[in-house]
Amino acid sequence: MEYPTEFKGHKGKIVSWAPQQKVLSHPAIACFVSHCCWNSTMEGLSNGVPFLCWPYFAEQIQNGRYICDELKVGLGFDKDQNGVVSCKELKLKVEQLLSNENVKSRSFELKKKLMNNIVKGGESWENLNRFVKWLKE
């Protein structure tokens, strides 16, 4: 497979698979271009990473709306008259997202809320323990 010149050398890298959770937790990650499946959504939210939402089908579309409109921790792309997201649109949304301090701070605050709820003793932890206990009965 031939990759665009921009992805050769030091400007980028394309791989067949990467440990998404590990990548998203790296401090160099400024945003997450996501198709908004539920696992990716939870991984992005739990790492406090703002989203650029690019959903394809099924629940991804609703998840993308939720990320952008309800949680306000991401932006969606606008397609052109041919249904294509242009390079200009991609560049514009990256710039808008990275310059928006409100989105960054909301992402970080949401991460704190999620992580406080997941840690031992949090509501999610307790719900999981009740569920496991119920299964054993």
Automatic annotation (TrEMBL):
InterPro entries: EF_Hand_1_Ca_BS, EF_hand_dom, UDP_glucos_trans. Residues 77-100 form the EF-hand domain. Pfam families: UDPGT. One of its GO terms (molecular function) is calcium ion binding. The keyword Transferase applies. This is UDP-glucose:acetate beta-D-glucosyltransferase. The keyword Transferase applies. It comes from the Eukaryota. Keywords: Transferase.
